[in-house]
């Protein structure tokens, strides 16, 4: 399963000045139709895409490798009249503010699923995808102290590809407050076994063969008297030591999420959760040979890396990049489904799978 924290943040996110001269970005979106002002389809609200066009992060003449014309003048007009003028700043400053506000919204969500749950984001690799993810990932990684970014191939279609190869899940849950003390392993195992049987039967009715099915168990556990639970994985329960290990895993999970544990307190299970999984065959990823040839930009353009920091940066076509090629930031990598922005102090290398790995120096 994937733990998702949903926010309204993307290329179509609309920027607006609220009462008190507060700049807000999202969750309202211009969508694909009419879309951002720069699409030239009648949309007049400034969006993140319009801001990125003004900043030079996105191609100011066309997207989709030239297939979609961009009206940079309309982006400038929308940002200038709707954001810059009310706030008494330049269009570039307003565009940078739009980017910063949206990136902050994303960072708050990332902290929610990492820091607030006891995980240090600096210990992870950031994998951005979608049309806009690779464009703002460099800023987010730098702010959160994440040292490595991996941009997959075809990031704009990454979610669609994932849907084709992801395993199929059938979930069952049961709410039953059960004190751990006084409950035998066999009693708990019987509850899980009944739920597993039902979940497996559901998948087999969908024509998944039994040999491709596995199950996973979790328990929502808490200290007696609490009003919230912590999910804890549950292996097969064969004896008293397994019960003791389950309680210890709960203490550790509580410590990781909330910063403390109370080992003297009574522990109870509030809900039982079973996930039956149909394993889908995964494709074999093709590898490509490394090259010693340098990466060659196809053009250069001015881009901003702060409100007042405009630089002439090289722009590369991702389709021309091969394993082993290095790109020093600041730089921009364009492809049909997305645009990757390397900030100053970042270096990219293409790996054998044609992923772009970015290191923060």
Describe what you observe in this structure.
- This protein is α+β, with helices and mostly antiparallel strands.
- The protein has 3 domains: 13-119, no CATH class; 133-160 and 287-360, no CATH class; 167-278, Dna Ligase, domain 1.
- The protein is 30% helix and 27% strand.
- It has 7 helices and 16 strands.
- Strand 10 and strand 11 form a beta hairpin.
- Helix 2 packs across helix 3.
- The longest helix is centred in the N-terminal third of the chain and has 23 residues, at 91-113.
- The two termini are 33 Å apart.
- The mean pLDDT is 92.
**What is the name of the CATH architecture of the largest domain?**
2-Layer Sandwich
- Helix content class: 25-40%
SSE pattern: EEHEEHHHEHEHEEHEEEEEEEE
| Whole-angstrom Rg | 25 Å
* Name of the top-level CATH class of the largest domain: Alpha Beta
Q: How much beta, percentage-wise?
A: 25-35%
Q: How would you characterize the largest beta sheet?
A: 4 strands, antiparallel
- Would you tell me the structural class of the helices and strands? alpha+beta
CATH fold category name of the largest domain: Dna Ligase, domain 1
- Spans of at least 5 consecutive residues with low confidence: none
Number of domains: 3
Q: What general outline do the C-alpha atoms trace?
A: elongated
Strand order of the largest sheet: 5-16-15-12
